[in-house]
Structure formats: structure tokens, C-alpha cells
Amino acid sequence: MTEPTLSCPSPARDDGERITLAHGEGGRRMRRLLQERILPTLGITVGDSADAASLGNVGQSLAMTTDGYVVSPLFFPGGDIGKLAVFGTANDLAVSGAAVRWLSLGLIIEEGLAWSLLEAVLKSIAEAARLVGAPIVTGDTKVVPRGAADQLFLTTTGVGELFPVVPPGPTALRPGDVLIASGPIGCHGVAVMAARERMGFLPPPTSDCASLLPAVAAMFAKPIVPRAIRDATRGGTAAVLHEWAELSGLAMRVDESQLPITPEVAGVCELLGLDPLHVAGEGMMLLAVSPEQADAALEALRGTEVARFAQPIGEVIPRRLSPVLVRRGLGRELPLDEPLGAPLPRIC
Amino acid sequence: MRFLNEFRDPGLATRLIRDIRRMATRRWTLMEVCGGQTHSLLRHGVDAELNDVIEMIHGPGCPVCVTRSDAIDWLAQLCQLPPVLVTSFGDMLRVPGDRDCLLNARAAGGQVRAVYSPLDAVRIAQETPDLQVVFFAVGFETTAPATALAALQAERLGLENFSLLVEHVRVLPAMEMLAAATDCRVDGFLAAGHVCTVTGFEAYADFASRFRRPTVVTGFEPVDLLWGILHCVRQLEAGQSEVVNAYTRAVQITGNRAARDLLDRVYEVVDKEWRGLGTVPGGGLGLREPYRRFCARRRFTQTLLPSAVPPVATELPIHRPNRCRAGDVLVGRLKPTACPEFATACRPESPLGAPMVSDEGACAAYFRYSSSHATHEPG
Predict the structure, then answer these.
(1) Among B34, B41, B376, the residue to mutate for chain A (most A Cβ within 10 A)
(2) B68-168+256-304, superfamily in CATH?
(3) What angle do CA A322, A325, A328 make, to 5 degrees?
(4) Cβ-contact B58, B31 below 8 angstroms
(5) Cα maximum dimension of chain B
(6) A55 FRET partner, CA 20 to 30 A, in A122, B258, B272, B315?
(7) Where in chain B do CATH 3.40.50.11740 domains reside?
(8) ipTM greater than 0.90, yes or no?
(9) Contact check, Cβ <8 Å, A336/B375
(10) Superfamily of domain A170-335
């Protein structure tokens, strides 16, 4: 049975609670969605919107990054997809040695998404963009049929100005370099997993979703230039360590007892049989610094809110058979495997 | 974490290692039955610390590894039929059947979802009456009470769209089969602590005396394991073979009465095909009346889709056309690292058999924690 087709859509439905395909097909509904809802919520003045944003004459070295966000659920303790999209992009620039200056935003909306949800995400995007100090200068909105997306997908592109000296990257690592975690590991992954599966932990584990730019800037201001910085997102700390080992031709050794892990993350990982080293964070990064600069780097990091729990976790060592080693339990060094897809819980 | 950190205390562990060394007059061979124990032994380096006085061999206690492969293939086919949603513990999704694993079946368009509890599967069935929700009920007596509860819950709710593919296994009959084998090298057993939290360990007294093997109910942390090993060695040195509970903080002699009652109410003991081991008499659980109406095999082979899904064969060839020697690994005849395929043709990302996939599989434990091979991609 199908609903009777209205030849002339009732104007009242324009302000309905859900976004429909009609909102994505150009024309008046699309214009109204943009001009009356999306742009004001993002704090963008109506009338500014042209097909491309002019960034002016910058006269500075720039870096650019782009990332897609498909997290489910859209809202989780400690964050939401909007905050994640802005901070994630700002962090990708920050760990590359750049401060985000401009953002673009792509929205792919599944038809039927409640306006209230979209509005909440947009408000969160606006707030996060304000925090990192980068306006959203251009964007795009598409509405796709039900099932072609999962509620809402975001794409953010960030353009940032490079600091005068940037980290040379993992190929510059040397044996003896100190590995530092800027904060507790695995918080985001555990929070999203617990929210997605409605595991009912009380209090619910909270995501660490945050901008790392202040911590990176504090170091560069010293000036301390780490050899490598990387945010430990998908694949967690283990993925970063494996990547560094591969690119440097060296091995990474961390000490389990030194790892900053919150009791919530430790508890959930214990229960589900996961290794916190494999779980993603969204507001923490790994740094490799020369041994001479390690203390100063820790001091600079700990002076910022986002990295107040920064901690040395291990060191770079000459190449071994296993590229990443963890000193565990009774003190033995055991290899750490690379994460193999999404972690799945054990059954008993 | 309370009840965990104190059982990982390196100081206490070192003292126990010293005591075990002092006590042992020869090298003893012990089997830890549960895959969780295997992983903990390797992860914390307990086996290496004691290697000169104790040889640890790994038992069949990985539920994912011993689940018959044709059950996976059957579900991989079943989930392709539009009304069917297959739900499973996450572990099971990557385990290869003879043809496919459930993750690949999902990628090919099948409906498969990982759940954390069988009751989640019941909830999905309740919320989506258009779907036929099948839960893949695997595991030892540890997970069986929860699936029994799911059957009761489905009955209470009058759900006609929920069913179970029951592949539960019982650990003691498999231990009996191992101990009865003429080539059994095991001097003493570390029994699976989690299973005993449900079943208790009354039945183990008979096992220990009948097979003259000391049997120690053992936990999973390094101190628990060392405590279990110490009790085992003490008996071996004294020529005793009794059952001892070294996991007293979790296990009582009669187990968990409520959970045992649930098992008795919903299941009956059946002979069961174990992957790699063959048929274990009394080695499994099957639904009893009136809960057989939740049997997925019955529902989908007889009523709903008679032609679309082939029935599960009752007689299975034990030797697979595969180089995997999981059977030998599961009964402790072969160390994973001694397998010619280990870490070469057989790796977690391209497993030849279940023990390389599961979080409790012995091969996966060696792959993850042993430094005798490269954990990164070859080449």
C-alpha cells in the first residue's frame, strides 16, 4: 500500500521533522534547508555562500588533509560525529606540524534523518570549529535514499599553516628516542563500542575526542621538535608503533606498566578480551623525541589540558625480528601484533 | 582492578616460580585445558619461566576451535536467505568453515551480526518480527547457561522468529577421551576454571582417580596459573592424584546451582562431533523438549525452507583436505610452533584452521606472544 501522492506538497511539510530526498534535489527546499538551517547553525552568514571560498593571499607554507566520518552511533559519551570530524581533521594537521586555518564540510544525509539530530551535530561542528579557530569556508550537502548511508556521513577537509619547523617523521627515528603517549589510550574506541552495543556500563566510558593542537603548539613554542608525531586513531597505539617500525627500519619497545590507561578502559578491555593497545583514541597522540628533549617535551605537554597525563611509555630500539615489543607481566618482552581489522570480543 | 592486579603481582609470581622449581624433582608435563589459560601463560611468560621443570601442553578448551566446521558453512548459506539474520559471538565470525567464514558471508550480502549476549539476539528478534533471528550457540558450559536463558526468554515472549543453532560442548568428556588415549603424555591437568564456576568439580574427583592424573581447578591470571601448577606438582611428587580447587575465589564444589538447573532444564547431553577430535561421547549439549522448537536446524530444514538449505550432514569426515593439523594441536600432540605451516602459510590473516583465528586458539597465542617468528607480513 502506498501513500497517495500529493501533486502540490503542503508547505507545512517543508518544516517537517525529517529530512527528505526533496531537500537534496536543488531548488527551493534545498536553498531553504541551507540558508535557513544549515548555514545559520554553522554560524555562516547567508549570502557568503559562493561555489568556492577564496583563501586570499596567504604567503605561507600550507598543509592540507581530508577525512571521512561514518561513526555509529552519531552521539556517544564524550562526543559526536561533528566534534569528531572537526577535531580529527585539526589533529591530522597538528601532528603534521600545521595549525588548522580553514575547514570544508561535506554532509551526506540519509533521507529520514531527524532535523533535531542534524541540528545538534551542526551545533557541535560550529562549536568545535570555533575552538580550533578555523572557520568552515565551503561545503556541500547531499541527501541519499534510505539505506544508501547510515544516518549521516561527514567529510571534512582542513587547510593549515605549517609551523616554521615541523617533525621530520618516522624515517628520522633513532635508537634511544623516547616514546611518549600524550594521554590515556583507547578511550574513544571503548566509548563508541560500549555505546553502539548498549553495554550499559555505569558510568559509561567516555571518548577522549579533543583537539591536540594546543599540545603540539606548546611544544613547538619551546621550541621542541619531536622526530615524529601521530594521533593513535584507528588501530590504536599498536598501529602507530607498527607504522613507525616499518618506516624507520627500527623496532619499538613499550612497557605495559607505563601505559596510561583509565580504569574504565582497562575494565572494558579486560571484560571483552581486547588489548587497549589496539583500541583507538581521538584525543591522544604518540610522540618520538630525542632523549635529550624528552623531559622538556613532557613538561610542555603536561602544561596543556589535553595532554596533562602525558607519559613516557617506551623507546626506539635497533631492529629485532619482531618490530614492536611489549614488556608485559613478569617482565618478558613479547611481540605486539598488528591490529587485524576491528577488534572482536571474546566469548568466555 | 581489584581481584585482578593482585593476581598479576610479579613479586608473588616470582615466589611461586621459586617454590615450583624447588619442589620438582623431574620435568613434568601438564595440560592446561582452556585456551584462555594458554593465552595467559604465553602472554605473561609463565611457560617460558618454568620451561626446564614443566612442559605445558595445550588442551582442547577453545570453544571456537572445536565447533564443527560444517555448522559455520551451514550458517554462511542460511544468512543469505532474506528473512534470516545470523547472530553470533564476535569470535566466531572469522573462523573458517570448510567453505567460508561468516564475515565473508556477510560481505557477500548475508545478514550477520555480532552480539555480546544471546539475550541481545532475543531482543533483536522481538524488535524485528520480520526477521528470522538465529543465534549461533557455541561454547562450553560457561556460555551454555546464557543461551538456555535466551531459549526461556524466547518462550516467555512467544517468539516464533528466534532459533538457536546449538553447538555447545562439554569439557570433561573431552578430557576423558584425551586421558584414555594410549599415547597421552599428560601427567596432570589444570582444569578450566570458568567452566567449573558453572559445573563445580564433583565429577573431577572420579576423573582424577580413574585416570590417575592430579587435576587442579585453575584460574587465568599468572598467579592463579602458578598456584594451579604448584598444586599439581605437589601431588605428582607425592604420587597422589586428586582434585584440588586452586581457584577458590570463583569456584565452589557444586558450581552455580542456578546455572546448572538452567542447563538441565533446556539441554540434554548428546554425543558431539568436535572439530579436529572426532565424536566425543557425551561431549555436547542439545535442546530437549519442549525447547526443540527453537532448534534452527529443525526450523530451516523441515518447515521454512526445505529446499533452499541443505541439512547438516550427521556423519562428518574427520580428515579435511587441508594442511591444518588442528586436531593434533588440540590434543597436545603438536606444539603450534612445530607445525610446518605455522607463521608461514598459516597466519591470523590467512588461517588454515580455527586455532590460528580464535582469541583462545593455541596457534594464535603462539603467533601473538612468541618471538620465534616475524609477526609482520613476510617480504
Answers:
(1) B376
(2) HypD, alpha/beta domain 2 (3.40.50.11740)
(3) 140
(4) yes
(5) 65
(6) A122
(7) 68-168+256-304
(8) no
(9) yes
(10) PurM-like C-terminal domain (3.90.650.10)
